[in-house]
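[Discussion] Sanity-checking designs against the backbone

I'm trying to build intuition for which residues belong where. Below is a structure token string of 131 positions. I'd appreciate it if someone posts a full sequence so I can compare it with mine line by line.
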């Protein structure tokens, strides 16, 4: 396995609660780091992270840890662009209602790389997922 995209909760688990990852997800993270040298994240995950911190569902340490990993090159942010925007209709709103989740799924779809996610709704779509 080479390039992967991690959804917001998957990368938080990877950084702070690796025991909550599935075995397949943990292996995919490790293999991607070995092959690509980084793990991709959708830019909407950063927005979602700030939102979860503001709601006090995550601590500020999560953001600090992520920023360190970005600076180290472990995580690479994928900006929301025209191709990803055009892929959003490929992720049916009737299946994945949450817009950040649709953007994350559309990012993986657009890049043609697997998405690490435990999200049952995203896993019902045509996006290549790992969990």
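Best answer:
Here's mine. Compare freely.
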């Amino acid at each position: 396995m080479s390039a992967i995209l991690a959804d917001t909760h998957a990368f938080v688990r990877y950084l702070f609660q690796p025991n909550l990852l599935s075995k397949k997800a943990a292996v995919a993270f490790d293999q991607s780091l070995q092959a690509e040298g980084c793990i991709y994240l959708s830019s909407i995950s950063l927005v979602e992270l700030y939102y979860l911190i503001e709601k006090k569902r995550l601590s500020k340490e999560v953001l600090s840890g992520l920023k360190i990993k970005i600076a180290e090159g472990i995580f690479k942010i994928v900006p929301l662009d025209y191709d990803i925007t055009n892929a959003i209709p490929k992720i049916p709103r009737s299946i994945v209602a949450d817009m950040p989740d649709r953007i994350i799924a559309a990012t993986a779809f657009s890049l043609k790389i697997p998405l690490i996610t435990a999200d049952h709704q995203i896993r019902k779509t045509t996006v290549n997922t790992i969990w």
